Amino acid sequence: MSYLPEVFERAVEAHRSRVALVEESKQWTFAELLDEANRVAALVRERVKGDAVGILLLNSQRYIATMLGVWKAGKTVVPLNYLLPPGELGFIVKDSGMSAIISSQFFAQALAALKPLFGDRGVILMADDPGFTAMSPGGIPAEYRDPALYLYTSGTTGRPKGVILTHDNLAANVESCQKADKFDHNDAFLCLLPFFHTYAITGTFLLPLFSGAKMVLVDRFQPMKVMSLIQDQKISVLLAIPSMYRVMAATEGDFKVSSVRFPISGGEPLPIPVAEAFERRFGVPIFEGYGQTEAAPVVTLNVPAARKLGTIGRALPGIDLAIWDEHNRFLPAGEVGEIMVRGRNVMQGYHHLPEETAKTITDGWLHTGDLGKLDEQGFVTITGRKKDLIISAGENIYPREIEEVLAQHPKVKEVAVIGVKDEVRGEVPKAFVIAREGIELDEKELRTFCRENLAGYKVPKYIEVVADLPRSPTGKVLKRMLSRSA
Fold it and tell me: 105, 150, 395, 461: which has the highest count of C-beta atoms within 10 A?
């Protein structure tokens, strides 16, 4: 069993005077970061009586020190997604049972709406208050207490669910990443993703921190600034989502990015045209991976030593991955079924939802809800979400296959495919397509393109050109919203 503050302190012993973190023009060594985390721990011990502490901050050095300090104080961190509407934030405050929020004046309006939910039991601590780190850091023994995180899902299927991740879940996932590829003090990670995502917490916070690498923070994605940071800070590891890579590939300017050895894509499927455009522009391939919050989160990853474009890579060391049919039977290579995951990284369960937990974990195996297949070399290809499967006149149609074909059309910027009811076939595919800037799309042209690249029954019966697609606060396309409007 691992405890995150202990792992961090071992990293401090090994890298005390090295730069751990860069934010704008400031930088902190590993020792300085530990000192501030200890001060936060002392404050939390004195002021916070309950077990769960919310953090509502932009990406910053203070966010990292706060998270480490809350853990050292023996509390559970609840990262709050500042993009959520007040109603959803309020639900998370109440469902998690948090007794404190650590935030800043930047979020004063949101805090005013949340404060009444606490009653007399809650406290709001301002991380930008000069006294926030004023307490003496001395004599702060770590308290060993789980869980480490309540991470609330984005709510694309209804109310957010609080995923319970232990210290060992997170530490195990970091260890698996470290075994998949060599990360060390020579690396510099660019932290683009907000820390209310487990992808960001594990991949751009814990992984570099525990590897002795440097973290370079940005509080929001600004393409020109990001490209300049990659060049000036000699970034070697970059974690982002496909839409960010699409923008970076199109950013004007002569940027030197030869330091980048490992750009990783996750969060949503990586369209092959985006991967090809990025590699053409910068001369380095994107390595697609896959994960879920419930798995802390990284499950598979293409790595420099073993990459297969169009797949999500192989399962990380220490993680078991299998394909099951609807009767929970293992399927051989090449057959499509549900992707199942087992390992130390799998969540403890959903907060206050024992029945949902029981449905999601079977004998230690996590039901991901994603459909996919393995090849003989262990590379995994995702075919879609189980709930998105279209059954048309008895034939299975995977929306992702249609999306990948349409995404390769030179006039298409983005696409989402859903199933809609049909009196004859039961269900048929419908595609929602966004055109590239300044281009008009012709539905007949798109349908002809599909016929040339897909079996006839997979060609969308309906194609609708739209200006935008509905998205969750995390940027994922909300197909349930498309279904309502179809």
Answer: 150
How far is residue 105's CA from residue 58's CA, in Å, rounded to a whole number?
Answer: 11
For the stretch 316-338, pLDDT in tens is 999 999 999 999 999 999 999 99
Query: Model pTM?
Result: 0.88
Closest CA to 433 of 448, 421, 447, 452: 447
In one-letter notation, the amino acid at residue 365 is W
Region at 298 (left for phi over 0; alpha for psi -120 to 50; beta for the rest): beta
Task: For CA atoms 411, 417, 422, 424, give the dihedral sign.
Answer: positive
How many Å apart are CA 156 and CA 395, to the nearest integer?
Answer: 26
HSE-CB of 22 using CA atoms within 13 angstroms:
18
d(C-alpha 397, C-alpha 437), whole Å: 30
- Going by pLDDT thresholds of 50, 70 and 90, the confidence category of residue 255 is very high
Q: What is the pLDDT of residue 154?
A: 66
pLDDT single digits (tens) 213-249 = 999 999 889 999 999 999 999 999 999 999 899 999 9
What was the pLDDT predicted at 140?
63
What does the alpha-carbon distance between residue 218 and residue 207 come to, in Å, rounded to a whole number? 17
Q: What is the DSSP string of 148-202?
A: -EEEE---TTSS--EEEE-HHHHHHHHHHHHHHS---TT-EEEE-S-TTSHHHII
Arithmetic mean of pLDDT, 193-207: 96
Question: For all residues of the chain together, what is the average pLDDT?
Answer: 93
DSSP secondary structure letter of residue 31: H
CB 284 within 8 A of CB 260: yes
Q: Is 80 left (phi over 0), alpha (psi -120 to 50) or beta?
A: beta
CB 117 within 8 A of CB 99: no
Q: Report the pLDDT value the prediction gives residue 141, as an integer from 0 to 100.
A: 66
Positive/negative CA dihedral, 103, 106, 108, 114: negative
Instruction: Please name each of the domains of the chain with its CATH number.
Output: 4-282 (3.40.50.12780), 389-485 (3.30.300.30)
Nearest-angstrom CA–CA distance, 405 and 276: 15
Place of tokens 């990443």: 177
